Every structure is written in structure tokens, then in C-alpha cells.
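This section describes the prediction task in plain terms. A model, or a person checking by hand, is given the sequence of a single protein chain and must write out its three-dimensional structure as a string of C-alpha cells. No templates, partner chains or ligands are provided. The sample shown here is typical of the held-out split.
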Amino acid sequence: MITKKGLLRHDNTNRQYTFNFHTKPIMTRPKHAMKKLESRPFKKILLSLRARLRGDVSAMAELALGQGKTAGGSGSSPSNHMADKGTDQYEQEFTLSLVENDEETLQWIADALDRIELGVYGACEQCERKIPKQRLNVLPFTAHCVKCANEIQTG
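The expected answer:
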């Protein structure tokens, strides 16, 4: 299991703990993993994407939870009509599902940034083959090559 040691301050003492970043065991640095210098452009892309998604998630959550709405719902004038209430509820549920999807993507981005720091970025987590740069340009947070991703999706 790949672990990283760090210091945790507790009761004015420095105690050393081991943090596990992955729940499943990963071998030592895969042969096809990118070097940190090679993964630097992907790290910039991931950080930019993370910043944008964080803003989107907070704005959508605010909208869905009604903090950005007027007293009557999504419109400018209050309405007690059942159809308006149904539309408002549908929009809220839809927005919350988008927030959930974006939060999942944010977790994938965090995992990819961890892989960069651990020196295993660019290698498939399943077969340890090299993930093509074309795939990483499209999905910089992917952890699997096309073949393994297809196998995972098809079950």
C-alpha cells in the first residue's frame, strides 16, 4: 500500500503518523508512470479544473438550497401554483444531482493529484500499462487505460 508519512500536531507535540491515500494496494512505482516533470502540465490542468468545479459546485449548491432565490421560487414574483412548485422542486433535484456529479469529479481530480505526488500518474491502476497522453488530455483525472476502463464499465 502506498503511504506517506506526515506530522500531526497533538497536545503541543509532534507525533508521526502514516496516512494511507489509497484503499487498495498499489505496487511500487509502475514502470510506465510519468516523471514529475512530465506530469507538470497535467497537474496545472487538474488544478485549474478543480478550481473551476469548486466554484460551480458552491454556486449550484447555493442555488439548489434556495439561498439565491426570492421568496417565491425561481421566478421574480411569488406563486402558490402547484405547477410552479413542481417545476421548482424538479430544478432543485436536478441541480443537486449536478452537484453530486461534480463532487465525484472533484474526488477523481484529488485522486489524480495524489497520484502525481506519489509518482504513479500516467500508469493504469489496474494493469500498470501506460495511459496514452491523448486520453489524459481529454480526461486528466482518469486512473485507467481505455481497455481497463471498458472492462470496468461492462462489468
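For orientation: The chain has a mean pLDDT of 76.
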